[in-house]
Amino acid sequence: MHDLKWIRDNPEAFDRGLARRGLEPVAARLIALDETRRAAQTRFQEMQARRNEASKQIGGLKKSGQDATALLDEVAALKERIPAAEAEDKASGAEIDDLLTRLPNLPGDDVPDGADENANVELKRWGTPRAFSFTPIEHDSIGDKLGLMDFTAAAKLSGARFVVLKGALARLERALANFMLNLQTETHGYTEINPPILVKDTALFGTGQLPKFGEDLFRTNSDHWLIPTAEVPLTNLYADEIVDLAKLPIRMTALTPCFRSEAGAAGKDTRGMIRQHQFMKVEMVSIAHPDFSDAEHQRMTACAEAVLEALNLPYRRIVLCTGDMGFSARKTYDIEVWLPGQNRYREISSCSNCGDFQARRMKARFRPEGEKGTRFVHTLNGSGLAVGRTLVAVLENYQQEDGSVVVPDALKPFMGGIEVIR
Questions:
Q1: pTM to 2 decimals?
Q2: I need a surface site. Which of 131, 143, 185, 224 has the fewest CB within 10 A?
Q3: Catalytic residue positions?
């Protein structure tokens, strides 16, 4: 959500930001609608005030026995005209709100320009991809040969883009989730939260999924939505709140199932576990002071990378260009893990600083020290990590020529003595 006052004061800067997102200018339209609304509000208030004043005068004239016909006619005319001004005010306000809620966040000044993922910029690499003495295969082939990853059974139950994990692979996914939660809570200081995975419209509006991206979500017949990420309930814990300054930054993490319709992903990653309708993810969310959100963004990204480093999985960090960023993000780092079966890096985490964009939608604020008013907090979110994709990375990077998979050292304490999956 954008600040209309800032748009009035900085129309050219606002349109430049939208242009970097590939969007047409709308500042002039917003300002014109705002002027129409203000004029209607002024007429409405003036007519109400005049009606009230005339009504008092009518009472006085009647008490003194004088003729009040002219004033009665004036009040009658005002009663007819007031609803039109009120309706114009509401219509202009509704159009402004609709426009503002559908416009994405403006990119930060240091975000690279570009139309799509081809303009993303690599910032660093960590780890050296393993040199295999055999040709590595993809995770779905590994899981199938182990007899522990069943897409056919899942399709019988639920259709495409689902999987059934069995035995040691089911345990390996659980081990990854436990390892990630322990790392983010015990080492990085995040507070573990167990939130609802069914939310109301207002929660998805607050984080920016609604109204524009409803087709990407699953909705129940009770008007609840299945969360696409724990970012939604975690961030909205602070909706309509004034946060104690001393508590900032607030760092939360949660392991939840996530649900996405993948409406825009037809034909993409139809095999395997890379893009599914249901998956587990450890999410990180920070509620931060505006002055320190950039530093918090760097910290959060490093916390996600720490998972891959502990598992000895090579990765790279990229900064997304303006055309590839999510709707609510001001700046996003993607972490991509090396998958030898695909011979390429694939996204395993996105860490975004949303500035005050979500906070304005949620009315999440704090009161600066020594000030009477409030300011909007900054919100940040990132995967720490997507559990299924991490499982994919472990299978492909730790596969052996005989079809077995070695359990990474960091996960062995969670595997009940299993060191090799055969």
A1: 0.92
A2: 131
A3: 260, 275, 347, 350, 389
